[in-house]
Amino acid sequence: MTSHYDAVIIGGGHNGLVCAFYLARAGYRVRILERRAVVGGAAVTEEFHPGFRNSTASYTVSLLNPRVIRDMKLADHGYRVIERPVSNFLPQPDGGYLKLGGGLERTQGEFRKFSAKDAETLPSYYAALEVVADLLRDLVLKSPPNVGDGMTMVIDALRQGWRISGLGIEQQRDVLDLFTKSARTILDSWFESDAVKAAFGFDAVVGNYASPDTPGSAYVLLHHVFGEVNGKKGAWGHAVGGMGAITTAMAAVVRAMGVEISLEAPVASVLVDGDRAVGVRLDGGEEVTGRCVIANVGPKLLYERLMAPSDLPADFRRRIGAFNVGSGTFRMNVALSALPDFTCLPGVGEHHQSGIILAPTLDYMDRAFLDAKRDGWSRAPIVEMLIPSTVDDSLAPPGCHVASLFCQQFAPVLPDGRNWDDEREAAADAIVATVEAQAPRFADSIIARQIHSPLDLERKFGLVGGDIMHGHLSLDQMWSARPVLGHGAYRGPLKGLYMCGAGTHPGGGVTGAPGHNAARAVLKDGAIWNRWR
Length: 533
Fold this sequence. Notes:
This protein is of the alpha/beta class. The chain folds into three domains: about 1-45 and about 60-80 and about 240-325 and about 470-530, FAD/NAD(P)-binding domain (3-Layer(bba) Sandwich); about 85-195 and about 205-230, no CATH class; about 325-465. About 35% of the residues lie in helices and about 20% in strands. Strands 1, 2, 11, 12, 13, 14 and 20 form a seven-stranded mixed β-sheet that branches. A seven-stranded mixed β-sheet has the order 7-6-16-17-18-15-19. Strands 3-4 form a two-stranded antiparallel sheet. A hairpin with a 4-residue loop joins strand 13 (about 275-280) and strand 14 (about 285-295). The longest helix has 25 residues, at about 115-140. The radius of gyration is 23 Å and the shape is globular.
Protein backbone atom coordinates (compact mmCIF):
# COMPACT_ATOMS: atom_id res chain seq x y z
CA MET A 1 0.00 0.00 0.00
CA THR A 2 1.33 3.44 -0.96
CA SER A 3 0.06 6.92 -0.10
CA HIS A 4 1.42 10.25 -1.32
CA TYR A 5 1.85 13.64 0.41
CA ASP A 6 3.61 16.92 -0.18
CA ALA A 7 5.75 16.34 2.92
CA VAL A 8 6.48 13.25 4.99
CA ILE A 9 7.94 13.93 8.46
CA ILE A 10 9.79 11.20 10.34
CA GLY A 11 9.14 11.64 14.06
CA GLY A 12 6.37 13.40 15.98
CA GLY A 13 8.52 15.40 18.38
CA HIS A 14 7.99 19.10 18.92
CA ASN A 15 10.20 20.17 16.00
CA GLY A 16 8.34 17.87 13.63
CA LEU A 17 5.05 19.35 14.82
CA VAL A 18 6.35 22.90 14.38
CA CYS A 19 7.64 22.09 10.90
CA ALA A 20 4.28 20.54 9.99
CA PHE A 21 2.47 23.67 11.19
CA TYR A 22 4.37 26.05 8.91
CA LEU A 23 4.08 23.70 5.93
CA ALA A 24 0.35 23.15 6.47
CA ARG A 25 -0.15 26.90 6.81
CA ALA A 26 1.40 27.23 3.34
CA GLY A 27 -1.04 24.67 1.94
CA TYR A 28 1.11 21.54 2.07
CA ARG A 29 -0.47 18.15 2.66
CA VAL A 30 1.61 16.71 5.51
CA ARG A 31 1.85 13.36 7.26
CA ILE A 32 3.83 12.78 10.44
CA LEU A 33 5.02 9.25 11.22
CA GLU A 34 5.68 8.63 14.94
CA ARG A 35 7.20 5.39 16.19
CA ARG A 36 5.67 5.53 19.68
CA ALA A 37 2.01 5.35 20.71
CA VAL A 38 2.06 8.97 21.91
CA VAL A 39 2.90 12.15 20.02
CA GLY A 40 5.60 14.48 21.32
CA GLY A 41 8.95 12.71 21.02
CA ALA A 42 10.97 13.39 24.17
CA ALA A 43 8.56 16.16 25.27
CA VAL A 44 5.75 14.00 26.68
CA THR A 45 3.85 13.60 29.94
CA GLU A 46 3.17 10.01 30.98
CA GLU A 47 1.86 8.14 34.00
CA PHE A 48 4.78 6.11 35.37
CA HIS A 49 3.02 4.86 38.52
CA PRO A 50 -0.73 4.79 39.28
CA GLY A 51 -1.78 8.38 39.99
CA PHE A 52 1.67 9.84 39.27
CA ARG A 53 2.37 11.69 36.00
CA ASN A 54 5.46 13.57 34.95
CA SER A 55 7.43 14.89 32.01
CA THR A 56 9.17 11.68 31.03
CA ALA A 57 12.33 13.05 29.40
CA SER A 58 12.38 16.78 28.60
CA TYR A 59 11.28 18.45 31.83
CA THR A 60 11.46 22.26 31.92
CA VAL A 61 10.67 25.29 29.75
CA SER A 62 12.61 28.33 28.63
CA LEU A 63 13.90 27.91 25.11
CA LEU A 64 10.59 27.49 23.23
CA ASN A 65 10.71 30.35 20.76
CA PRO A 66 8.18 33.16 21.33
CA ARG A 67 7.39 33.38 17.61
CA VAL A 68 6.48 29.69 17.52
CA ILE A 69 4.24 30.15 20.57
CA ARG A 70 2.50 33.13 18.96
CA ASP A 71 2.17 31.68 15.46
CA MET A 72 0.72 28.39 16.69
CA LYS A 73 -1.49 30.21 19.24
CA LEU A 74 -0.51 27.64 21.82
CA ALA A 75 -2.03 29.63 24.68
CA ASP A 76 -5.45 29.04 23.07
CA HIS A 77 -4.82 25.30 23.40
CA GLY A 78 -3.80 25.18 27.06
CA TYR A 79 -0.14 26.24 26.92
CA ARG A 80 0.74 27.76 30.30
CA VAL A 81 4.10 28.10 32.04
CA ILE A 82 4.68 29.01 35.68
CA GLU A 83 7.98 30.75 36.26
CA ARG A 84 10.27 29.47 38.97
CA PRO A 85 10.41 31.94 41.92
CA VAL A 86 14.17 31.38 42.01
CA SER A 87 16.08 29.70 39.20
CA ASN A 88 18.33 27.35 41.15
CA PHE A 89 19.07 26.23 44.69
CA LEU A 90 22.54 24.84 45.45
CA PRO A 91 23.28 23.19 48.83
CA GLN A 92 26.91 23.62 49.82
CA PRO A 93 29.37 21.25 51.55
CA ASP A 94 29.70 23.52 54.61
CA GLY A 95 25.96 23.31 55.33
CA GLY A 96 25.09 26.58 53.62
CA TYR A 97 23.27 27.16 50.37
CA LEU A 98 23.00 29.57 47.46
CA LYS A 99 19.89 30.64 45.59
CA LEU A 100 20.25 32.01 42.08
CA GLY A 101 17.53 34.15 40.51
CA GLY A 102 14.52 36.11 41.68
CA GLY A 103 15.94 39.42 40.50
CA LEU A 104 19.36 41.06 40.46
CA GLU A 105 19.31 42.55 43.96
CA ARG A 106 18.12 39.32 45.51
CA THR A 107 20.83 37.29 43.77
CA GLN A 108 23.44 39.82 44.81
CA GLY A 109 22.30 39.37 48.40
CA GLU A 110 22.84 35.63 48.06
CA PHE A 111 26.26 36.16 46.54
CA ARG A 112 27.32 38.41 49.44
CA LYS A 113 27.11 35.37 51.71
CA PHE A 114 30.08 34.04 49.75
CA SER A 115 31.83 37.07 48.24
CA ALA A 116 31.11 40.80 48.32
CA LYS A 117 33.28 41.19 45.23
CA ASP A 118 31.21 38.66 43.30
CA ALA A 119 28.01 40.45 44.25
CA GLU A 120 29.35 43.71 42.86
CA THR A 121 30.63 41.97 39.71
CA LEU A 122 27.31 40.30 38.92
CA PRO A 123 25.64 43.19 36.97
CA SER A 124 28.63 43.43 34.63
CA TYR A 125 28.63 39.67 34.09
CA TYR A 126 24.91 39.64 33.31
CA ALA A 127 25.36 42.55 30.89
CA ALA A 128 28.19 40.79 29.04
CA LEU A 129 26.24 37.53 28.85
CA GLU A 130 23.11 39.27 27.65
CA VAL A 131 24.89 40.84 24.69
CA VAL A 132 25.94 37.42 23.44
CA ALA A 133 22.58 35.86 24.33
CA ASP A 134 20.86 38.53 22.25
CA LEU A 135 23.09 37.59 19.31
CA LEU A 136 21.96 33.99 19.67
CA ARG A 137 18.31 34.99 19.91
CA ASP A 138 18.76 36.92 16.68
CA LEU A 139 20.31 33.89 14.93
CA VAL A 140 18.00 31.18 16.27
CA LEU A 141 15.34 31.59 13.56
CA LYS A 142 17.83 32.14 10.75
CA SER A 143 19.25 29.40 8.57
CA PRO A 144 23.06 29.32 8.84
CA PRO A 145 25.03 30.34 5.74
CA ASN A 146 25.43 27.14 3.76
CA VAL A 147 28.93 26.52 2.44
CA GLY A 148 28.77 25.71 -1.24
CA ASP A 149 25.81 27.99 -2.03
CA GLY A 150 27.92 30.63 -3.78
CA MET A 151 26.79 34.23 -3.41
CA THR A 152 23.77 33.18 -1.34
CA MET A 153 26.17 31.88 1.29
CA VAL A 154 28.23 35.08 1.15
CA ILE A 155 25.17 37.31 1.51
CA ASP A 156 23.80 35.23 4.42
CA ALA A 157 27.18 35.31 6.16
CA LEU A 158 27.41 39.08 5.79
CA ARG A 159 23.88 39.59 7.12
CA GLN A 160 24.39 37.36 10.13
CA GLY A 161 27.87 38.68 10.85
CA TRP A 162 26.73 42.30 10.76
CA ARG A 163 25.55 42.24 14.37
CA ILE A 164 28.94 41.03 15.60
CA SER A 165 30.85 43.57 13.55
CA GLY A 166 28.71 46.31 15.09
CA LEU A 167 29.75 45.41 18.64
CA GLY A 168 32.50 47.17 20.52
CA ILE A 169 35.86 45.43 20.83
CA GLU A 170 35.21 44.37 24.44
CA GLN A 171 31.92 42.75 23.45
CA GLN A 172 33.54 41.03 20.47
CA ARG A 173 36.09 39.57 22.86
CA ASP A 174 33.26 38.27 25.05
CA VAL A 175 31.72 36.58 22.00
CA LEU A 176 35.00 34.88 21.13
CA ASP A 177 35.58 33.78 24.72
CA LEU A 178 32.12 32.29 25.14
CA PHE A 179 32.38 30.32 21.92
CA THR A 180 35.87 28.91 22.44
CA LYS A 181 36.92 28.83 26.09
CA SER A 182 36.08 26.51 28.94
CA ALA A 183 33.39 27.41 31.44
CA ARG A 184 35.98 27.45 34.24
CA THR A 185 38.25 29.85 32.36
CA ILE A 186 35.36 32.25 31.78
CA LEU A 187 34.00 32.03 35.32
CA ASP A 188 37.45 32.32 36.93
CA SER A 189 37.92 35.60 35.08
CA TRP A 190 34.72 37.00 36.65
CA PHE A 191 34.23 35.46 40.08
CA GLU A 192 36.18 34.20 43.11
CA SER A 193 33.63 32.11 45.05
CA ASP A 194 33.42 28.39 44.28
CA ALA A 195 29.70 28.38 45.01
CA VAL A 196 29.02 31.28 42.66
CA LYS A 197 31.04 29.68 39.89
CA ALA A 198 29.16 26.42 40.37
CA ALA A 199 25.82 28.21 40.16
CA PHE A 200 26.67 29.39 36.65
CA GLY A 201 28.93 26.53 35.65
CA PHE A 202 26.21 23.90 36.02
CA ASP A 203 24.65 25.01 32.74
CA ALA A 204 27.92 24.21 30.96
CA VAL A 205 27.61 20.47 31.69
CA VAL A 206 23.87 20.02 31.12
CA GLY A 207 23.54 17.53 28.28
CA ASN A 208 27.27 17.88 27.73
CA TYR A 209 29.47 14.85 28.43
CA ALA A 210 32.44 16.99 29.32
CA SER A 211 34.23 18.74 32.15
CA PRO A 212 33.70 22.43 32.89
CA ASP A 213 37.42 22.57 32.02
CA THR A 214 36.77 21.40 28.45
CA PRO A 215 37.38 24.12 25.83
CA GLY A 216 34.08 25.16 24.29
CA SER A 217 32.02 24.29 27.37
CA ALA A 218 31.36 28.00 27.91
CA TYR A 219 29.09 27.94 24.85
CA VAL A 220 26.93 25.21 26.40
CA LEU A 221 26.53 27.52 29.40
CA LEU A 222 25.36 30.21 27.00
CA HIS A 223 23.03 27.83 25.12
CA HIS A 224 20.92 27.47 28.26
CA VAL A 225 20.43 31.20 28.93
CA PHE A 226 19.08 32.61 25.64
CA GLY A 227 15.49 31.56 26.31
CA GLU A 228 12.63 33.25 28.12
CA VAL A 229 9.41 32.55 29.99
CA ASN A 230 6.33 34.74 29.62
CA GLY A 231 8.49 37.49 28.09
CA LYS A 232 11.15 37.41 30.80
CA LYS A 233 14.59 36.75 29.32
CA GLY A 234 16.69 33.98 30.85
CA ALA A 235 13.85 32.66 33.02
CA TRP A 236 12.84 29.00 33.38
CA GLY A 237 9.48 27.54 34.27
CA HIS A 238 7.18 24.56 34.74
CA ALA A 239 4.73 23.69 31.96
CA VAL A 240 1.32 23.08 33.53
CA GLY A 241 0.41 19.50 32.66
CA GLY A 242 4.05 18.67 32.02
CA MET A 243 6.01 18.98 28.79
CA GLY A 244 3.47 16.78 27.07
CA ALA A 245 0.97 19.60 27.40
CA ILE A 246 3.09 21.58 24.93
CA THR A 247 3.23 18.87 22.27
CA THR A 248 -0.41 17.91 22.85
CA ALA A 249 -1.35 21.52 22.11
CA MET A 250 0.88 21.53 19.02
CA ALA A 251 -0.68 18.28 17.79
CA ALA A 252 -4.19 19.72 18.24
CA VAL A 253 -3.21 22.77 16.20
CA VAL A 254 -1.76 20.84 13.26
CA ARG A 255 -4.51 18.21 13.21
CA ALA A 256 -7.05 21.02 12.92
CA MET A 257 -5.09 22.19 9.87
CA GLY A 258 -5.37 18.79 8.21
CA VAL A 259 -2.01 17.28 9.15
CA GLU A 260 -2.19 13.49 9.51
CA ILE A 261 -0.34 12.08 12.54
CA SER A 262 0.21 8.34 12.47
CA LEU A 263 1.17 6.78 15.80
CA GLU A 264 2.87 3.40 16.19
CA ALA A 265 4.21 3.92 12.67
CA PRO A 266 7.97 3.25 12.88
CA VAL A 267 9.97 4.12 9.78
CA ALA A 268 12.26 1.32 8.58
CA SER A 269 14.04 3.15 5.77
CA VAL A 270 14.10 6.18 3.53
CA LEU A 271 13.18 5.45 -0.09
CA VAL A 272 15.63 6.82 -2.65
CA ASP A 273 15.28 7.10 -6.41
CA GLY A 274 18.56 8.12 -8.01
CA ASP A 275 19.70 11.30 -6.27
CA ARG A 276 16.33 12.08 -4.62
CA ALA A 277 14.56 10.99 -1.42
CA VAL A 278 11.03 10.06 -2.48
CA GLY A 279 9.44 8.65 0.68
CA VAL A 280 9.77 6.10 3.46
CA ARG A 281 8.97 2.48 4.12
CA LEU A 282 7.39 1.58 7.46
CA ASP A 283 8.24 -1.50 9.49
CA GLY A 284 4.94 -3.03 8.42
CA GLY A 285 5.78 -2.59 4.74
CA GLU A 286 3.61 0.42 3.93
CA GLU A 287 5.28 2.98 1.69
CA VAL A 288 4.56 6.66 2.16
CA THR A 289 5.87 8.88 -0.62
CA GLY A 290 6.23 12.63 -0.80
CA ARG A 291 7.74 15.53 -2.66
CA CYS A 292 10.02 15.86 0.34
CA VAL A 293 11.08 13.77 3.32
CA ILE A 294 11.85 15.68 6.55
CA ALA A 295 13.68 13.91 9.36
CA ASN A 296 12.88 14.94 12.92
CA VAL A 297 15.42 12.42 14.20
CA GLY A 298 19.13 12.81 14.88
CA PRO A 299 21.68 12.68 12.05
CA LYS A 300 23.18 9.42 13.33
CA LEU A 301 19.80 7.70 13.33
CA LEU A 302 18.81 9.08 9.95
CA TYR A 303 21.97 8.44 7.99
CA GLU A 304 23.35 5.33 9.69
CA ARG A 305 20.15 3.39 10.42
CA LEU A 306 17.42 4.59 8.08
CA MET A 307 19.45 4.95 4.88
CA ALA A 308 21.54 2.56 2.83
CA PRO A 309 25.25 3.48 2.70
CA SER A 310 25.12 3.27 -1.09
CA ASP A 311 22.58 6.11 -1.16
CA LEU A 312 24.96 8.59 0.47
CA PRO A 313 28.15 10.26 -0.78
CA ALA A 314 31.21 8.50 0.64
CA ASP A 315 32.72 11.61 2.26
CA PHE A 316 29.40 12.59 3.82
CA ARG A 317 28.96 9.06 5.20
CA ARG A 318 32.45 9.15 6.72
CA ARG A 319 31.83 12.50 8.38
CA ILE A 320 28.50 11.39 9.83
CA GLY A 321 30.38 8.40 11.22
CA ALA A 322 32.60 10.87 13.06
CA PHE A 323 29.69 13.05 14.22
CA ASN A 324 30.02 13.09 18.01
CA VAL A 325 26.99 12.02 20.07
CA GLY A 326 26.41 11.06 23.69
CA SER A 327 25.31 13.68 26.22
CA GLY A 328 26.18 11.60 29.30
CA THR A 329 22.61 11.93 30.56
CA PHE A 330 20.71 9.68 32.99
CA ARG A 331 17.07 10.53 33.60
CA MET A 332 14.80 9.44 36.46
CA ASN A 333 11.27 10.22 37.59
CA VAL A 334 10.27 9.42 41.16
CA ALA A 335 6.93 9.29 42.95
CA LEU A 336 7.26 10.73 46.45
CA SER A 337 5.18 10.47 49.60
CA ALA A 338 6.65 13.75 50.87
CA LEU A 339 8.83 16.64 49.79
CA PRO A 340 12.57 16.24 50.43
CA ASP A 341 13.70 18.05 53.58
CA PHE A 342 17.12 19.62 53.07
CA THR A 343 19.52 19.81 55.99
CA CYS A 344 20.81 23.20 54.87
CA LEU A 345 17.30 24.68 54.52
CA PRO A 346 14.70 22.64 56.45
CA GLY A 347 10.99 22.84 55.81
CA VAL A 348 8.88 23.64 52.76
CA GLY A 349 9.85 26.71 50.76
CA GLU A 350 10.32 28.29 47.38
CA HIS A 351 13.49 26.26 46.85
CA HIS A 352 11.25 23.25 46.21
CA GLN A 353 9.91 25.08 43.13
CA SER A 354 13.40 25.77 41.74
CA GLY A 355 16.06 23.71 40.05
CA ILE A 356 17.74 21.91 42.95
CA ILE A 357 21.39 21.50 41.90
CA LEU A 358 23.54 18.93 43.65
CA ALA A 359 26.93 19.89 42.26
CA PRO A 360 28.44 22.42 44.66
CA THR A 361 31.69 23.28 42.86
CA LEU A 362 33.35 23.13 39.45
CA ASP A 363 35.84 20.65 40.93
CA TYR A 364 32.92 18.37 41.86
CA MET A 365 31.69 18.55 38.24
CA ASP A 366 35.15 17.84 36.88
CA ARG A 367 35.57 14.79 39.15
CA ALA A 368 32.18 13.48 38.08
CA PHE A 369 33.25 13.63 34.43
CA LEU A 370 36.65 12.03 35.06
CA ASP A 371 35.04 9.25 37.10
CA ALA A 372 32.55 8.60 34.31
CA LYS A 373 35.30 8.45 31.69
CA ARG A 374 37.21 5.94 33.78
CA ASP A 375 34.41 3.86 35.32
CA GLY A 376 31.41 4.51 33.08
CA TRP A 377 29.42 6.54 35.57
CA SER A 378 30.12 8.77 38.53
CA ARG A 379 29.28 7.52 42.02
CA ALA A 380 28.91 11.19 42.97
CA PRO A 381 27.02 12.43 39.91
CA ILE A 382 25.73 15.86 38.99
CA VAL A 383 22.01 15.93 39.83
CA GLU A 384 19.33 18.50 39.08
CA MET A 385 15.98 17.84 40.74
CA LEU A 386 12.72 19.58 39.84
CA ILE A 387 9.46 18.98 41.68
CA PRO A 388 6.75 20.25 39.31
CA SER A 389 3.92 18.98 41.53
CA THR A 390 4.67 21.90 43.88
CA VAL A 391 2.95 24.16 41.33
CA ASP A 392 0.83 21.64 39.41
CA ASP A 393 -1.23 19.38 41.66
CA SER A 394 -2.62 17.44 38.68
CA LEU A 395 0.58 15.41 38.53
CA ALA A 396 0.30 13.51 41.83
CA PRO A 397 -2.31 12.41 44.40
CA PRO A 398 -3.04 14.80 47.31
CA GLY A 399 -0.11 15.04 49.72
CA CYS A 400 2.27 13.36 47.27
CA HIS A 401 4.70 14.66 44.68
CA VAL A 402 6.64 13.80 41.54
CA ALA A 403 10.25 14.77 40.96
CA SER A 404 12.41 14.85 37.86
CA LEU A 405 16.03 13.84 38.41
CA PHE A 406 18.16 15.00 35.51
CA CYS A 407 21.66 13.62 36.00
CA GLN A 408 24.97 14.13 34.19
CA GLN A 409 28.19 12.17 33.64
CA PHE A 410 26.99 8.71 32.64
CA ALA A 411 28.92 7.29 29.70
CA PRO A 412 26.85 6.54 26.58
CA VAL A 413 28.71 3.23 26.28
CA LEU A 414 30.14 1.54 29.38
CA PRO A 415 33.77 0.37 29.32
CA ASP A 416 34.99 -3.24 29.53
CA GLY A 417 31.97 -4.62 27.68
CA ARG A 418 29.57 -3.80 30.52
CA ASN A 419 25.91 -3.15 29.72
CA TRP A 420 23.56 -0.45 30.99
CA ASP A 421 20.84 -3.05 31.49
CA ASP A 422 23.00 -4.60 34.20
CA GLU A 423 24.00 -1.33 35.89
CA ARG A 424 21.01 0.98 35.60
CA GLU A 425 19.64 0.10 39.06
CA ALA A 426 23.01 0.64 40.76
CA ALA A 427 23.41 3.98 38.98
CA ALA A 428 19.91 4.98 40.09
CA ASP A 429 20.83 4.04 43.67
CA ALA A 430 23.88 6.32 43.46
CA ILE A 431 21.67 9.18 42.32
CA VAL A 432 19.26 8.62 45.20
CA ALA A 433 22.20 8.48 47.62
CA THR A 434 23.45 11.81 46.26
CA VAL A 435 20.10 13.42 47.09
CA GLU A 436 19.89 11.58 50.42
CA ALA A 437 23.20 13.12 51.50
CA GLN A 438 21.53 16.55 51.37
CA ALA A 439 17.97 15.50 52.27
CA PRO A 440 17.95 12.63 54.80
CA ARG A 441 15.06 10.15 54.45
CA PHE A 442 14.61 11.03 50.79
CA ALA A 443 15.01 7.35 49.88
CA ASP A 444 12.27 6.39 52.37
CA SER A 445 9.84 8.77 50.63
CA ILE A 446 10.21 7.12 47.20
CA ILE A 447 7.07 5.21 46.25
CA ALA A 448 8.20 4.32 42.73
CA ARG A 449 10.89 5.29 40.26
CA GLN A 450 11.18 5.31 36.48
CA ILE A 451 14.73 4.90 35.18
CA HIS A 452 16.14 5.98 31.84
CA SER A 453 19.81 5.13 31.33
CA PRO A 454 21.53 6.40 28.15
CA LEU A 455 20.59 3.07 26.55
CA ASP A 456 16.97 3.42 27.68
CA LEU A 457 16.83 6.91 26.18
CA GLU A 458 18.07 5.50 22.88
CA ARG A 459 15.60 2.64 22.83
CA LYS A 460 12.58 4.65 23.93
CA PHE A 461 13.09 7.97 22.17
CA GLY A 462 15.57 7.18 19.39
CA LEU A 463 18.27 9.33 20.98
CA VAL A 464 21.43 7.63 19.72
CA GLY A 465 23.91 7.36 22.58
CA GLY A 466 21.18 8.76 24.83
CA ASP A 467 22.07 12.19 23.44
CA ILE A 468 19.37 14.70 24.32
CA MET A 469 21.01 17.21 21.95
CA HIS A 470 21.18 14.82 18.95
CA GLY A 471 24.92 15.62 18.88
CA HIS A 472 27.52 17.50 20.91
CA LEU A 473 27.32 21.29 20.98
CA SER A 474 31.01 21.67 20.18
CA LEU A 475 32.47 24.34 17.91
CA ASP A 476 32.98 21.84 15.07
CA GLN A 477 29.30 20.79 15.25
CA MET A 478 27.57 24.16 15.42
CA TRP A 479 25.93 26.67 13.10
CA SER A 480 26.90 25.98 9.45
CA ALA A 481 28.69 22.77 10.48
CA ARG A 482 25.67 21.19 12.19
CA PRO A 483 25.61 18.35 11.33
CA VAL A 484 28.09 18.58 8.42
CA LEU A 485 29.58 21.59 6.65
CA GLY A 486 27.71 22.08 3.40
CA HIS A 487 24.48 20.72 4.90
CA GLY A 488 23.97 23.19 7.73
CA ALA A 489 20.86 24.79 6.22
CA TYR A 490 18.49 21.86 6.96
CA ARG A 491 19.02 20.18 3.57
CA GLY A 492 20.41 16.67 3.37
CA PRO A 493 22.82 15.34 0.73
CA LEU A 494 19.94 14.14 -1.49
CA LYS A 495 17.32 16.25 -3.24
CA GLY A 496 14.07 16.32 -1.34
CA LEU A 497 15.68 15.29 1.96
CA TYR A 498 15.58 17.71 4.90
CA MET A 499 16.41 17.71 8.62
CA CYS A 500 14.35 19.49 11.29
CA GLY A 501 15.65 18.03 14.56
CA ALA A 502 18.09 19.09 17.27
CA GLY A 503 21.01 17.81 15.17
CA THR A 504 20.66 21.03 13.17
CA HIS A 505 21.09 24.69 14.17
CA PRO A 506 20.59 25.87 16.92
CA GLY A 507 20.80 22.48 18.63
CA GLY A 508 18.98 20.84 21.52
CA GLY A 509 16.30 21.96 23.91
CA VAL A 510 12.59 22.47 23.31
CA THR A 511 12.99 25.48 21.00
CA GLY A 512 10.94 24.73 17.89
CA ALA A 513 13.60 26.66 15.94
CA PRO A 514 14.88 23.75 13.80
CA GLY A 515 11.29 22.91 12.83
CA HIS A 516 10.56 26.52 11.92
CA ASN A 517 13.77 26.95 9.92
CA ALA A 518 13.49 23.61 8.11
CA ALA A 519 9.96 24.47 7.00
CA ARG A 520 11.24 27.73 5.58
CA ALA A 521 13.92 25.85 3.60
CA VAL A 522 11.31 23.42 2.25
CA LEU A 523 8.99 26.24 1.24
CA LYS A 524 11.80 28.15 -0.45
CA ASP A 525 12.83 25.11 -2.46
CA GLY A 526 9.19 24.29 -3.18
CA ALA A 527 8.62 27.74 -4.64
CA ILE A 528 11.54 27.22 -7.00
CA TRP A 529 10.32 23.71 -7.88
CA ASN A 530 6.81 24.99 -8.65
CA ARG A 531 8.25 27.76 -10.81
CA TRP A 532 10.22 25.37 -13.01
CA ARG A 533 8.17 22.17 -13.07
